[in-house]
Design brief:
This protein has helices at 2-26, 34-44, 54-78. By secondary structure, the chain is mainly α. Helix 1 (2-26) runs antiparallel to helix 3 (54-78).
């Protein structure tokens, strides 16, 4: 069971934010275009154009907190 949990944590904690970062980085100069706003606006609309990447920071922070809480809860149950 640990194997599945560690794989999923790695995928969601690192894979998804890195994939989103790659997609945004590739299109960073066109993020204000209408077609890009339709695709990625939900990730970038709350931030200034020069901070297009900040949603990934927020996403990683949320997943990190959840991972710490989940694993600490598991460790405390074993103690």
């Amino acid at each position: 069971m640990w194997t599945v949990g560690v794989f999923n944590l790695g995928f969601y904690a690192f894979g998804v934010p890195l994939l989103v970062l790659y997609m945004l980085f590739k299109r960073r100069h066109r993020l204000q275009d209408v077609d890009m706003l339709a695709k990625f606006g939900f990730l970038t609309m709350g931030y200034e154009p020069q901070y297009w990447f900040y949603e990934i920071v927020v996403m990683a922070r949320k997943i990190s907190v959840l991972a710490v809480v989940a694993f600490l809860g598991r460790v405390r149950a074993l103690l």
